[in-house]
C-alpha cells in the first residue's frame, strides 16, 4: 500500500478543537501524536494487506490511518459519538478514493461504512461501548490492534478474546504496569487475575515500552505494547466461567494459601484442600504459583456445577 499522511501533533489538536473535543480521564482518552509509534504498532501486530482488523477506541484516528496504510480493513469501535462522527471525515480526507457507503442506526449502535471504488468496506465505524459489543458487521476480524482506554483495558481485552474466536492475535497498548500483569508468568511478583485469564486465550508477551511524550495529553505513567497470540485453552471438562471463578477466589486475598482462599468456593477449607491435592498441587501454595492449567484442574476437582451467565463480571480483572 502507498504511504498515507498520518496525523501529527498540530493536526490532532486542530481536529480536537474543531470538534470541541477535550480528552477526558473518564473515557481514558490519551491520543497518539507520533506517526513513528503508530507504524511500530502496526509492524509489531504483523498486519497484512486485506485482513480485517478490529480497533477499540480509535479516538481521532491516528492508529486507524496506520492500519489502513498497511492495507487492512478496519472495524473501529468508539464509545464517544462525537469522535465516532469525526473519524470517517478524517479518514476520507487522508485516504483518497474512500466515500461513505452506508450508515445504519439501531437501538444499540450506529454504524458508518467507508468504501473504496470497488465497493470494498475499508473502514467501518461502530458507535458503541466496547464492553457491550457482541457482534461486529462484515467478515470476522482476525486481529485486534488498539491503543486501549486505560481505565477499561483489561476488561475490554478479555471481552474481545472471549466473544470473537476469529481473533488470531492482538497487539494492544496499555499502561506499562498492566502490560506486566498481562504477560507475567506464574511465580512472578506481578502475576495475578489478568495474567491467568489472558493465558486462557493466548500467549502474551510485552514487546516494547512507549514513553509519555507521544500522547496528548501526556499520561502520568509509561505505556507498553503487549502481543497476544491465540492458543487453545487448557483441556478440561468444566466451563471457562467455572475456572475463572476459581481464579477470582484464589486471588481475592493474595497472601492466602489455596486451601484458605478457596474454602468459600469449596464449602470448607478441608474440601478445598482435597480439591487442590486432587489437582496435583500443594494446598499451602498461593494463587500466584499456579498456572492456568492448574486452575482448570482445581475447578474440575471442585466439581463446580452451578451455571454462570457470561458477562462483564466473568472477564473483569
TrEMBL record:
<dbReference type="Pfam" id="PF00398">
    <property type="entry name" value="RrnaAD"/>
</dbReference>
<dbReference type="InterPro" id="IPR001737">
    <property type="entry name" value="KsgA/Erm"/>
</dbReference>
<feature type="binding site">
    <location>
        <position position="78"/>
    </location>
    <ligand>
        <name>S-adenosyl-L-methionine</name>
    </ligand>
</feature>
<dbReference type="InterPro" id="IPR023165">
    <property type="entry name" value="rRNA_Ade_diMease-like_C"/>
</dbReference>
<keyword id="KW-0489">Methyltransferase</keyword>
<feature type="binding site">
    <location>
        <position position="129"/>
    </location>
    <ligand>
        <name>S-adenosyl-L-methionine</name>
    </ligand>
</feature>
<keyword id="KW-0698">rRNA processing</keyword>
<feature type="domain" description="Ribosomal RNA adenine methylase transferase N-terminal">
    <location>
        <begin position="37"/>
        <end position="232"/>
    </location>
</feature>
<keyword id="KW-0694">RNA-binding</keyword>
<feature type="binding site">
    <location>
        <position position="32"/>
    </location>
    <ligand>
        <name>S-adenosyl-L-methionine</name>
    </ligand>
</feature>
<keyword id="KW-0808">Transferase</keyword>
<dbReference type="GO" id="GO:0052908">
    <property type="term" value="F:16S rRNA (adenine(1518)-N(6)/adenine(1519)-N(6))-dimethyltransferase activity"/>
</dbReference>
<feature type="binding site">
    <location>
        <position position="57"/>
    </location>
    <ligand>
        <name>S-adenosyl-L-methionine</name>
    </ligand>
</feature>
<keyword id="KW-0949">S-adenosyl-L-methionine</keyword>
<feature type="binding site">
    <location>
        <position position="30"/>
    </location>
    <ligand>
        <name>S-adenosyl-L-methionine</name>
    </ligand>
</feature>
<dbReference type="InterPro" id="IPR020596">
    <property type="entry name" value="rRNA_Ade_Mease_Trfase_CS"/>
</dbReference>
<feature type="binding site">
    <location>
        <position position="147"/>
    </location>
    <ligand>
        <name>S-adenosyl-L-methionine</name>
    </ligand>
</feature>
<keyword id="KW-0963">Cytoplasm</keyword>
<dbReference type="InterPro" id="IPR020598">
    <property type="entry name" value="rRNA_Ade_methylase_Trfase_N"/>
</dbReference>
<dbReference type="InterPro" id="IPR011530">
    <property type="entry name" value="rRNA_adenine_dimethylase"/>
</dbReference>
<dbReference type="InterPro" id="IPR029063">
    <property type="entry name" value="SAM-dependent_MTases_sf"/>
</dbReference>
<protein>
    <recommendedName>
        <fullName>Ribosomal RNA small subunit methyltransferase A</fullName>
        <ecNumber>2.1.1.182</ecNumber>
    </recommendedName>
</protein>
<comment type="function">
    <text>Specifically dimethylates two adjacent adenosines (A1518 and A1519) in the loop of a conserved hairpin near the 3'-end of 16S rRNA in the 30S particle. May play a critical role in biogenesis of 30S subunits.</text>
</comment>
<comment type="similarity">
    <text>Belongs to the class I-like SAM-binding methyltransferase superfamily. rRNA adenine N(6)-methyltransferase family. RsmA subfamily.</text>
</comment>
Amino acid at each position: 500500500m502507498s504511504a498515507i499522511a498520518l496525523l501529527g501533533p498540530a493536526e490532532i489538536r486542530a481536529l480536537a478543537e474543531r470538534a470541541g473535543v477535550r480528552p477526558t480521564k473518564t473515557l481514558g482518552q490519551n491520543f497518539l501524536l507520533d506517526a513513528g509509534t503508530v507504524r511500530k504498532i502496526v509492524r509489531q501486530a504483523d498486519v497484512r494487506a486485506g485482513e480485517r482488523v478490529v480497533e477499540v477506541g480509535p479516538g481521532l484516528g491516528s492508529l486507524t490511518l496506520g492500519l489502513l496504510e498497511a492495507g487492512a480493513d478496519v472495524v473501529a469501535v468508539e464509545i464517544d459519538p462525537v469522535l465516532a462522527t469525526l473519524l470517517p471525515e478524517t479518514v476520507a480526507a487522508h485516504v483518497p478514493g474512500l466515500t461513505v457507503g452506508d450508515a445504519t442506526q439501531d437501538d444499540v449502535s450506529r454504524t458508518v461504512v467507508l468504501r473504496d471504488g470497488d465497493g470494498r468496506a475499508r473502514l467501518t465505524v461502530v458507535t458503541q461501548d466496547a464492553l457491550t459489543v457482541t457482534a461486529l458487521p462484515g467478515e470476522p476480524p482476525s486481529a485486534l490492534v488498539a491503543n486501549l482506554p486505560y481505565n477499561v483495558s483489561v476488561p475490554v481485552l478479555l471481552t474481545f478474546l472471549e466473544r470473537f474466536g476469529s481473533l488470531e492475535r492482538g497487539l494492544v497498548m496499555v499502561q506499562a504496569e498492566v502490560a506486566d500483569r498481562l504477560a507475567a508468568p506464574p511465580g512472578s511478583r506481578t502475576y495475578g487475575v489478568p495474567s491467568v485469564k489472558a493465558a486462557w486465550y493466548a500467549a502474551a508477551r510485552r514487546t516494547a515500552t512507549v514513553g509519555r511524550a507521544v500522547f496528548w495529553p501526556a499520561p502520568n505513567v509509561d505505556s507498553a505494547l503487549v502481543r497476544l497470540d491465540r492458543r487453545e485453552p487448557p483441556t478440561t471438562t468444566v466451563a471457562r466461567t467455572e475456572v475463572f471463578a476459581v481464579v477470582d477466589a484464589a486471588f481475592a486475598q493474595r497472601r492466602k494459601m489455596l486451601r484458605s482462599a478457596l474454602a468459600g468456593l469449596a464449602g470448607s477449607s478441608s474440601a478445598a484442600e482435597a480439591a487442590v491435592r486432587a489437582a496435583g498441587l500443594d494446598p499451602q501454595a498461593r494463587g500466584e504459583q499456579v498456572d492456568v492449567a492448574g486452575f482448570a484442574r482445581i475447578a474440575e476437582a471442585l466439581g463446580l456445577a452451578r451455571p454462570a451467565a457470561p458477562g462483564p463480571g466473568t472477564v473483569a480483572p
